[in-house]
Amino acid sequence: MDTNSLAGVTATLVEWPSLGGLSLETEDTEGRDARYFYGASQSHTAFTFDVLIEGSTPEQAAERRDNFVGLIAPHRGAQSLIAELDTAWQWWEVMVSGQIDWRRAGWHRGKSFTLRADVSFETVGDAAAMEAEQVPVSFASSLSFTLDRGNTVAYPQIEFPSGARATVKVGGFEVVVSDTTSGRTNVLDYQAMEFYQKDATNGARLASIVRFMSHYRRASLTPGQSVSVSAVGAPTGTRRLYPNARRV
Question: How far is CA 69 from CA 7, 20, 52, 116, in A?
Fold first, then answer.
């Protein structure tokens, strides 16, 4: 849904979220003014929009309200969210998260009728934002790469020609993918934790390669840290790295 395409609807982000859903796990230490720290987690990122609905008549305002609500209703599933303030980043899986209470903000006879409400959303997938346009880095055998986007750890996607046994390395991380059906592209997507073959021409997903992998630990990239990326042993052809930069 794009509110710019909805007549009479204006949605303004009330607050810009960072470190959404952050919580700390701690325990008080007896006899000391301190706590033990065990870990931190981010469950979700929350957004609140000030939504203004305008119509030339009460009926038109109500119709536009219903159209807006229908587009964000939970039955449509999770949708991506891009704020106009920063269109280079998006949250991939966002859903409306609470009841909407409309207030009559103004009624000018013969001119306009206005409804207003705070509308809340939450991420139901990754709490971090990701780049709206994923641009791959192509390489022939190995690549020296430094993550220079985002502000937190990223989980890359590596693609390479299928067929022969291949050893994929990302810095100190290493996984072996044994012989697979040739003539396709193997995909190791550590953001979604999905591992499969796709058609090398049209990109259609064909088969899982999970059973060909030596382990399922997660490869990662750290901002500012240079690493070597390679897929040694795979047939000759282009390899691709999608960094999947993230921002919290």
Answer: 14, 24, 12, 13
